[in-house]
Amino acid sequence: MQNTANNSHPKGSVWTDPKARAWLFQIIAVIAVVAMGWYLFDNTQSNLEKRGITSGFSFLSNSAGFGIAQHLIDYSESDSYGRVFVIGLLNTLLVSVIGIVLATILGFILGVARLSPNWLISKMATVYIETFRNIPPLLQIFFWYFAVMLSLPGPRQSLGVGETFFLNSRGLYMPAPSPTDSFGTFIGALLIAIIAIVLLGRWAKARREATGKVFHVSIAAAVVIIVLPGMALLFAGNPLQWETPALSGFNFRGGWVMIPELIALTLALTIYTAAFIAENVRSGIMAVSHGQTEAARSLGLSGAITLRLVIIPQALRVIIPPLTSQYLNLAKNSSLAAGIGYPDMVSLFAGTVLNQTGQAIEVIAITMSVYLAISISISMLMNWYNKRIALIER
Amino acid sequence: MQTHTFKPDMPPPVLSVGVLGWLRTNLFSSWFNTLLTLFAVYLVWLIVPPLIQWAFIEADWVGTTRADCTSDGACWVFIQQRFGQFMYGFYPTELRWRVDLTVWMAVIGAAPLFIPQMPRKALYGLCFLVVYPLLAYWLLHGGFFGLSTVPTSRWGGLMLTLVIASVGIAGALPLGIVLALGRRSDMPAIRVLCVTFIEFWRGVPLITVLFMSSVMLPLFLPEGLSFDKLMRALIGVILFQSAYIAEVVRGGLQAIPKGQYEAAAAMGLGYWRMMGLVILPQALKLVIPGIVNTFIALFKDTSLVIIIGLFDLLNSIKQATTDPAWIGMATEGYVFAALIFWIFCFGMSRYSMHLERKLNTGHKR
């Protein structure tokens, strides 16, 4: 092929041959990038030497020596920077997961509300969406943190729901469960119930496909899931002990606490992202043509079944790709935690650890790769889900 | 012979026309809808009256100090007193006319671009894009032709927000177009380089990019060469935003039918002429709304420069709320900031929707 191509342009020199030129361009580009990289690397090397910074990741095993407001795993000041990294990562994941779940729920509700035939409901959803998606997320975080959370009353005057939940300027206090001896029995009963329901569902489906007889699984399932764990509860006793927070001295003790930074961050990210998700949901549902509804109804399907089997599967196909990018945005926006000092990846690791150790390159590289890894995992997960629900076309 | 005369039509039922009819179809069409309406009315009643009470009826509008805020409502005196700082940051008061002039020049200079009948619009736009930044730099920064220098460390407020956003988009646009072309290129090495670049910047949050440009950039540069804080932030913003622009432009390039490429090649146009004369003019026109949306995102993201210590609108307000003379003004400050950001973003999103309708000609099948 190469020869015939050359033979058909006998007078063309190497310079006018598109293939040769493509090669040349690519070689020049690669050389330029490599040279640029080498230049930066060289500069960095000499700069680091001049400042007396030794590069490498050995600093990760040094003792950190500072306290952290929220840690999901045990931590003390003498623990290493490596552990600080894990804590930051877990805190980032925590706020991302809570935010994604809440924003999805709120976003779907708002998206459906905006399409509601009820004028008032749809206008309210519109006002919500247009307000919150046009205000920077960082500003919303600041608002919830500085204007709302920090101006709440102190622990002694906290707002309480019953004697179990307390909200004050130090956070939201709630009862913490701890398993008792009968916890295993209860979980076992619950698992058996779930397995039984799954098997029942399979049997019912097989029977329906074979004989056409319908068996109402939902009623049976409700009975099974209430009766089995209920019996465990009755005979083995309470599986969980609830430790309620109580005021002692100037602060609450016991129970779980959601620190104000986490509350502000979760609220702001949820409210902001939900506005975008609502728009995706709306456009997804609107993308399913009305003929689909009419066709389903004329086949005799009820309204709820039409929604579940016809509209939603087709709408999801449109909703999932933009939803993925909203999830990515939320995970990336969780880094705004640095603005209010929530101990996430950025504020803990790229902020405090960087300042203490001066290992700028390593710290930033680790931080960026963590976010890249999170982004890639979310998009792979969502792509997998998208493929699963995609319509199989010819 | 008996002639048949029609009786006049009966009026439609009272409940299906007029205000009552509207209410019935839109608010009370079923018991569930009625329930929803009542719930919504309750929500509105819960939120709106206290808000109006706080923001307008019980608010304090006149005064000079915190002591003038005696009522329970909002203290807008705070905003009035600090307005200059929110708009200009620490820009010297006697030189603020330079900022105003820059803004007015932008408004007046760009106005002809929005007149549909304007002749030679493209040429004028190009001249404007070349001349205006130089002029704006001269006015804002000064240092030559008789204007005194105002270092960027004194820039702040809304002005800095606008500077970062507009320089960011102006720098990101050409870079983004080149990246998009590279990603669609036939040459594997170029494509891989561009894809890596784009996906890298899209995968990391802007905040880490700003961290990187503020702590790592000085390490990358040779001795003696250093940028000030604003410049470093701008470099970060431009690199970050160019990846997003590239994806928007790629969408436009993909939307151009293959026949256009083939026709251009058949006319004997080389790659750059094909792109410059045939493909890009069509593709860019298609993606203008997308670019405006990217700009809105960038405009909101400028608030992140607070992390590296620049005094944009949000940071100016945050600083002012920590002033001991104005303690407890956080709500007023953030509401004001939200209002400014909202006006800009909402205005631009409406404009982008308008453009989308206007430019939606003949490409949809």
Automatic annotation (TrEMBL), chain A:
Keywords: Amino-acid transport, Cell membrane, Membrane, Transmembrane, Transmembrane helix, Transport. InterPro entries: AA_ABC_transptr_permease_3TM (IPR010065), ArtM/GltK/GlnP/TcyL/YhdX-like (IPR043429), MetI-like (IPR000515), MetI-like_sf (IPR035906). The chain crosses the membrane at residues 20-41, 53-73, 85-113, 134-152, 183-202, 214-236, 256-278, 299-320, 363-385. This is Amino acid ABC transporter permease. GO terms for biological process: amino acid transport. It is found in: Cell inner membrane; Cell membrane. Gene3D superfamilies: MetI-like. The keyword Transport applies. It holds the Pfam family BPD_transp_1. PANTHER family: AMINO-ACID ABC TRANSPORTER PERMEASE PROTEIN YHDX-RELATED, MEMBRANE COMPONENT OF AMINO ACID ABC TRANSPORTER. It is a multi-pass membrane protein. GO terms for molecular function: transmembrane transporter activity. The keyword Membrane applies. Residues 89-382 form the ABC transmembrane type-1 domain. Belongs to the binding-protein-dependent transport system permease family. HisMQ subfamily. GO terms for cellular component: ATP-binding cassette (ABC) transporter complex.
Automatic annotation (TrEMBL), chain B:
One of its GO terms (cellular component) is ATP-binding cassette (ABC) transporter complex. Keywords: Amino-acid transport, Cell membrane, Membrane, Transmembrane, Transmembrane helix, Transport. The keyword Translocase does not apply. Residues 158-347 form the ABC transmembrane type-1 domain. One of its GO terms (molecular function) is transmembrane transporter activity. The chain crosses the membrane at residues 31-52, 95-115, 122-140, 160-182, 233-253, 326-349. It holds the Pfam family BPD_transp_1. This is Amino acid ABC transporter permease. One of its GO terms (biological process) is amino acid transport. It comes from the Bacteria. It comes from Pseudomonas taeanensis MS-3. It is found in: Cell inner membrane; Cell membrane. It is a multi-pass membrane protein. Belongs to the binding-protein-dependent transport system permease family. HisMQ subfamily.
